[in-house]
Design brief:
The protein has about 130 residues and is α+β, with helices and mostly antiparallel strands. Helix content is about 40%, strand content about 20%.
Length: about 130
């Protein structure tokens, strides 16, 4: 199993910061390892402090279920298969766009979580961040 290193996490965060700067939306970017433990987090200047925990929990959710939080949200609507999942795990599960599993050689080794803008903004920053791995 390949491990997610601090250097990996820093690269992921830097790519997320670059994309957030491009779109003009300060963000919180969090990276967790395969166990869902926080490896690194950054709150860009001007990013909402209320989104710190959300970014960390988006990363945790993406790793806990090995699915993007956007995909999970799509399946967590009333009458869908994961409706109510956001109430599990003491409310830690996030069903907003912006959390993406990180893979290496088709193996999930962690996840990135982004929060601080609209769902589309969070998602585009998360995609750029994940692409840096």
């Amino acid at each position: 199993m390949s491990a997610l290193t601090l250097a990996d996490a820093r690269r992921v965060i830097e790519a997320g910061e670059n994309r957030a700067t491009e779109i003009g939306q300060p963000q919180n970017v969090a990276v967790v390892d395969t166990g869902g433990n926080l490896v690194a987090h950054v709150r860009m200047d001007g990013a909402w402090i209320g989104s710190v925990d959300i970014s960390i929990n988006k990363a945790w959710t993406a790793r806990a279920f090995n699915i993007s939080t956007k995909e999970l949200a799509d399946n967590a609507q009333p009458s869908d298969q994961f409706y109510g999942i956001h109430a599990s795990n003491s409310g830690r599960v996030m069903i907003f766009a912006g959390g993406i599993p990180l893979t290496r050689d088709d193996e999930v080794i962690g996840a990135v979580g982004v929060s601080g803008g609209s769902g589309d903004q969070d998602q585009t920053v998360a995609e750029a961040a994940a692409g840096a791995l």
